[in-house]
Amino acid sequence: MLRWMRGFLLTAQSDDEGEDQESNRRYENLFRQLDQDGNGKVDIIELQEGLRKLGISVGKDVQEDLLKAGDTNQDDQLDFEEFMQYLKDHEKKMKLAFKSLDKNKDGIIEASEIIQSLKTLGVDITQQQAEKILQSIDTDGTMTVDWNEWRDYFLFNPATNVEEIVRFWKRSTGIDIGDALTIPDDFTEEEKKSGVWWRSLLSGGIAGAVSRTCTAPFDRLKIFMQVQRVQSKHIHLTEGVKHMIREGGILSLWRGNSMNILKIVPETAINVSVYDQYKKLLTSRDSTQINNIERFVSGSLAGATTQTLTYPMEVIRTRMALGKTGQYSGILSCAIKIMKNEPLGTFYKGYIPNFLSILPYAGVDLSVYEIMKNYWLDNYAKDSVNPGILVLMLCSASSNFCGQLVSYPLNLVRTRMQAQEGTPQRNIFYFFQEIFVKEGITGFFRGITLNFMKLLPAVTISCLVFEKVQKTLGVT
Q: DSSP states of 140-199 as a string?
């Protein structure tokens, strides 16, 4: 990427004045390459065409961000002064980033320094993977990156360091599919001090609310199918939709979604807070330098704690989703009716299977994600270390798919226990036996098709909204 720049970028001079003169010549040369009609201004069309001809592959969003960042007079064009000022400001950021990664201050970045820097983000990579990252930037075959190589590679890239490029490999809070079991993000001390962490969590919360609302009909239909017994396996999805629409109209497909959205805030707040505390307890070193096993244990414990404290909200959501038209006027009405007519323990019905599902879900989800990350880095990270949002969504969707698959029988039993009213009260063993005897092995996966149907749109919507909100809040 950007290897073309070696053809006309001059060697940097040692004194500041000479370096400024060299930069001005470079910027002028670049501007002439982009200003195809020679009118002294570059608009978005010229920028797109010019970068394409120069062999620079960046997305449309990146091009628009570049134009917006440099266009100080807001005329939707860049003149030479604006272009030069943008590149000078960007180069300063790249210089600071280069120095922060150059741990031993020898003027070059080595594989060991890449590994060390990414480890602080909670991303573990091998020596071989670090070398592939270097190869994508290195132009002289030394397996190290000097300042000129670094500058050339990132000149038209909004990310100013390798940490930002590989940051997507963290388990992002923006990937929301309606489950509270996923392991939260690791934030560096710098992110905590700067406020990036809470803006990132807010972005994830908004993305989760939008995603859950868009896919709410899938969720309600899944709960309905988990509890209701339908004779025909071939038409149960359409029959379920028809039944809910006949009973309560189109809007009834979103019944219970208000609680699903409301519980995002306490789930996220508790999960992140206790996750950080568990990391400190389990690691004898800096809690930001945590390996996958420690992350898995900390995440599982955080998930268990979060579920314990917020579980009554999950019971209310299930009851509302299964409720008939007019049965509950809202969240408070549902909670009051449960307290009046049933013992307080009702709010923890199904807690045991839910608790037991945390370990297999988190373990498989994290393991599959790591396997796919390493596979991509080992086989495809040749010209760029950034796989793009499509690969990210594929990794997230695949890992969530596998996590749901192994934990689904427990989640189904949990839902049936939450739904049972009156007496006698059945325990987890009763439901497992009943399902196996009456419905067979496939009975444990009733409704799972809805989970898989909503997975891709949920992850896609969540990723896109998360990215947009992050930009609005100044996270990226």
A: SSSSSEEHHHHHHHHTT-S--SHHHHHGGGS--TT--SS-S-S------HHHHHHTHHHH
Residue 217 Cα distances to 72, 211, 214, 454, angstroms? 45, 12, 8, 9
Quickly tell me which residue has 């266009």 as its tokens: 71
Residue 231, classed as helix, strand or coil, is coil
Number of neighbours of residue 262 by Cβ within 10 angstroms: 15
pTM here is: 0.71
Which amino acid is residue 300, in one-letter code? S
Q: How far is CA 265 from CA 206, 260, 262, 460, in A?
A: 10, 10, 7, 21
User: Identity (one letter) of the amino acid at 151?
Assistant: R
Residue 462 contacts residue 211 (beta carbons within 8 Å): yes
Say if residues 435 and 426 touch (Cβ distance below 8 Å).
no
What is the reported pLDDT for 445?
92
Of 178-192, 342-356, 423-437, 461-475, the range with the highest mean pLDDT is 342-356
pLDDT tens digits, residue range 329-338? 899 999 999 9
Asked if omega into 217 is within 30° of 0 (cis), the reply is no
Tokens 């079991």 sit on residue = 181
Q: Is the pLDDT of residue 181 over 60?
A: no
